[in-house]
Amino acid sequence: MADENALTLPFIDLRSTDTAIVGGKNASLGEMIASLSETGIAVPGGFATTSRAYREFLRHNHLDGAIADVIGAMNEGNLPESGTKIRRMFDKAKFPPQLEQEIRESYRQLGNGDRISVAVRSSATAEDLPAASFAGQQETFLNIRGEETLLDACRKCYASLFTDRAISYRENQGFDHLEVALSIGIQHMVRSDLGAAGVMFSIDTETGFAEAVLINASWGLGELVVQGSVDPDEYRVFKPLLDNPQLRPVLERRLGNKSNKMIYADEGDEPTRTISTKESERSAFVLTDTEAMQLARWAVVIERHYDRPMDIEWAKDGETGKLWVVQARPETVQSQRGTQMLKNYTLKNRGRELVRGLSVGDAIAAGKVCKLASPDEIGQFEEGAILVTPMTDPDWVPVMKKAAAIVTDHGGRTSHAAIVSRELGLPAVVGTGNASQILKPGQEVTVSCAEGDVGFIYEGEADFEARDLALENIPKTKTAIMLNLANPSAALQWWRLPADGVGLARMEFIINNLIKVHPMALVEPDRVTDEKVRQAIAHLTRAFDDPKDYFVETLARGVSLIAASRWPNP
After folding, report:
1. Has this prediction a pTM greater than 0.85?
2. Could you report the per-residue pLDDT of 166-190, keeping only the tens digit for each?
3. Cα separation of 111 and 116, whole Å?
């Protein structure tokens, strides 16, 4: 165990047992550097301030009693005012001389005296626990250069322990505000601003299927993927066949729009800026199959080491092409669910399809649309309505808790909207592109996440049925039971069903559901005369040099996805 009296500690000296000293995030970084480096997993080095350093910071500035007074007088009505008051205290605070000196010296050692770029991440002592993620509750600052800028970022990290969203989350989780401390991780920046970054889960986030790694990837720094303000590429990799060098078990590649990316800012007060991507970047996959498989292998190693499903952030250096793991924490939703109960939602009727996106969860909800542009508009939200917004961040959580379902224009399955929706048990459709333009305030709609990977918003309030099926009550049969599966996108939804394999997979259904183009239109594209159809085909096949390759690869991956859901059965 690390020295609990230290003010700063290098990552290499930390282990997963040091959560009380440096928080879950920093303890996990130290654990991976010390225990998994020999497996080939690369983690950027750095150092952490300790929980004792945070307590010393409070004591040095006489903040303990002042914070306690504000918290004691706080109620739901004055929470924003209370949070602002506490954060202002931190803004005016000074670092204890010894802590300031150690941060400066550790930074110099990290860069061998150079003014290097670092990531400054908050790591609270009550976050990244197996049953509570605290997703995005505290702040992260990227491309921080120089000692004075670093100290300012550290001060802001301390203050972020008392953002409105962090206070609200601790209230709901029953954590004592004054018992939680904050450690700060200062870590070498990976030049993903020139490359790519994203998030991966060692378990399928929607179905709990344990044999797949889900990877989201986008150009530039990974913050936009986490925030959900970009629609990333999505990959599913089949874990059981990763060790066979003859195979390429990437079950699915889904091209995201990736319309913007975050890069370093060369001038101005902000260390990063967001720019539009080039058309060539939007139409290209971020990762090769080889890179996706390498990341998936790392996810398997990390999962085995921690003995639980994991939520992992990764980055690709644009200068060297090297892949890195920059964070790892326990997955907190699917790993907490039992595997013996299957809840099945069925639509009895449906209105006209209005918009579609990526489904989060497997439920159905109906209600009136409430469009909000900002969480400040929470007063306009009616409990039980369908929240429609461009994207969410942790400030939206109080609104999300009142919603029946959530629909966003942007984001993937690893975005903030997706993670919090799963924690709250709400159906969500993310990455729709234009829901906030198409759906009208007060319009009655049905949000369906019960039809596989694709989530739909239908016109009107449809009738639907929800049934709980206890799988342990299903009797064993002498006759082998084989499933008929037609839609690869829904295949993993049924992995819990006791069955002996797949008996029938209709290829025309796979073409309709997944490929969406007649094969002859891809063989002889010049014979397609309708300009709108030609444009639609060009958009679907934009990542492929030859449209025929799109058909062959997508069909192969679709069949693979169906097969993987029942592996090792035939």
Report:
1. yes
2. 887 787 777 888 888 999 999 999 9
3. 6
